[in-house]
From TrEMBL:
Topological type in the membrane: Peripheral membrane protein
Pfam families: ERO1
PANTHER family given in the database record: ERO1-LIKE PROTEIN, ERO1-RELATED
Domain of life: Eukaryota
Family: Belongs to the EROs family.
Compartment annotation: Endoplasmic reticulum membrane
Essential cofactor(s): FAD
Keyword annotations of the record: Disulfide bond, Electron transport, Endoplasmic reticulum, FAD, Flavoprotein, Glycoprotein, Membrane, Oxidoreductase, Redox-active center, Signal, Transport
Name of the protein: Endoplasmic oxidoreductin
SUPFAM superfamilies: ERO1-like
Quaternary structure and partners: May function both as a monomer and a homodimer.
Keyword Electron transport: yes
Length: 487
């Protein structure tokens, strides 16, 4: 074990010694967990404007074949394309059942704040070809191909529960933006606790952050080697478990970023970015920001892989040829960027003699996460939770369940439901927008007075110290720590 560890360290050093000399120490994008000056590290970072091949890279995104610079250099263009795309009629209308009862516990913590409410759309405003009655006839699989429970179903290939099209409301996502609602307290904490504790493999943020990061060794060609080394402690380095945690944590960090950027001052009623909120929830924990990058690469890989299907998809429904044609062209633009950014080797996961069992366990865990969304006591939070867990679940299905034949739009024209396509693109937009908002927070930080900076850093240090104390206590009791993500 020791010999393998020394070999890995030496190999990583030889491969990246030039980059290490030029790179600033303790970057939040480095392989080492940053726990000193982390707030400044995140907020004073200058995003790359050119892909990695034109400058010294800060390093790869672990368990992917992409680096941070590539994501940063393309994100402005990706965000612009996605921001326009999700406002088109096809991608802004979404049908969801927001009033199904929580299947795991009796939920009484409903949010009474005005911002928790949503505005629905009457079915008469929805183009006929997108209405539930028509989509049910075209998309809903036969009963022998789906597993049903009241109000929703899943197919064996699905990583999430899908709402039954016969129930639910139509929502204009652009009229119900994801932002601060005031939904907090025991109800919100219980939801996140269930997601992290009851539906994961026991890996915690602490365990993930302190485990070795093998990606720098294998980035140039493949992730297979070191990640699958025989001497690895499977309880700490199992790739599938690490990927699962990164997906959930990245999604949580992205949601937190949106809440903090579109924050309502409950005293004045004004909406504005809340820098302190972002620092305490994300910037003080740089690894959380790294997981947003990870999720973005994961979803762009899914979009790139299913690109031919999305290019052949029928987006018609606006009644104007130009509008439908513009939507298709925007989709193709996003696919083009995704083919550059989405460097994720899905073939490395779920291999070996226990692959089928591990994949089914992974799948069942994520299905449970999608069902937990019915326990969220805020309608708007529940809506966006359903959209984004469905979007990630769709990406996972594309990467791990569909072979090349299944992806052929000529052989499988109903591969994805309209809801899955809408959720996939909107979730990718959420992640891209989060990185855009991070850069906006950096601009705010640059204009902040030094005395205020020191106050914010001091407050963040107290939050981190408090959570680290709880983590240490939890680890000493040999229980996985999830306190760091419960607020």
């Amino acid at each position: 074990m020791l010999r393998q560890q020394v070999y890995s360290i030496l190999l990583a050093f030889l491969l990246h010694s030039g980059a290490l000399e030029a790179k600033e120490p303790q970057s939040f994008l480095s392989d080492t967990l940053v726990r000193k000056d982390q707030v400044q590290n995140v907020l004073e970072h200058q995003p790359a404007k050119e892909p990695h091949c034109q400058q010294v890279p800060t390093g790869p995104i672990e368990t992917t074949l992409c680096d941070f610079e590539t994501v940063e250099s393309y994100n402005d263009e990706l965000y612009t394309q996605l921001h326009d795309l999700v406002q088109t009629p096809f991608f802004k209308y979404y049908r969801a059942d927001l009033y199904r009862e929580c299947p795991f516990w009796q939920e009484n913590g409903y949010c009474m704040n005005r911002e928790c409410a949503i505005t629905t759309v009457d079915e008469s405003e929805i183009p006929p070809s997108w209405r539930a009655s028509e989509l049910s006839r075209l998309e809903l699989p036969s009963e022998d191909l789906r597993n049903t429970i009241p109000g929703c179903y899943y197919r064996d290939s699905d990583f999430c529960f899908l709402d039954d099209l016969s129930e639910g409301d139509y929502v204009d996502l652009t009229a119900n933006p994801e932002r601060f609602t005031g939904y907090t307290g025991p109800s919100a904490h219980r939801v996140w606790a269930s997601i992290y504790e009851e539906n994961c493999f026991g890996i915690s943020e602490w365990a993930l952050s302190s485990a070795p990061n093998p990606a720098p060794v294998t980035l140039p060609d493949s992730m297979t080697g070191v990640l699958r080394s025989e001497g690895a402690d499977s309880s700490r380095t199992c790739l599938e478990k690490r990927v699962y945690y990164k997906i959930i944590s990245g999604l949580h960090a992205s949601i937190s970023t949106h809440i903090c950027y579109e924050f309502m001052n409950q005293t004045t009623g004004e909406w504005s970015p809340n820098l302190e909120c972002f620092i305490n929830r994300v910037a003080a924990y740089p690894e959380r920001l790294q997981y947003i990058y990870f999720d973005l690469v994961l979803l762009t890989r899914a979009v790139a892989r299913i690109g031919p299907y999305l290019s052949a998809y029928d987006y018609c429904g606006t009644g104007t040829h130009k509008g439908d044609d513009d939507t298709l062209n925007q989709v193709k633009n996003v696919i083009g960027i995704a083919q550059t950014v989405g460097k994720f080797d899905e073939t490395v996961l779920f291999r070996g003699e226990n692959a089928a069992i591990l994949k089914e366990e992974f799948k069942q865990h994520f299905r449970n996460v999608t069902r937990i969304m019915d326990c969220v006591g805020c309608d708007k939070c529940r809506l966006w939770g359903k959209v984004q867990t469905s979007g990630v679940g769709t990406a996972l299905k594309i990467l791990f369940e569909l072979d090349e034949k299944a992806l052929d739009p000529h052989l499988n024209s109903n591969l994805l439901s309209r809801s899955e396509v809408v959720a996939l693109i909107n979730t990718l937009h959420r992640l891209s927008e989060s990185l855009y908002f991070v850069n906006e927070f950096r601009k705010i930080w640059a204009e902040t007075a030094q005395s205020e900076e020191q106050r914010l850093i001091h407050e963040a240090e107290k939050v981190v110290a408090s959570e680290d104390a709880v983590k240490s206590l939890t680890v000493s009791r040999r229980q996985p720590s999830t306190s760091s993500i419960l607020r």
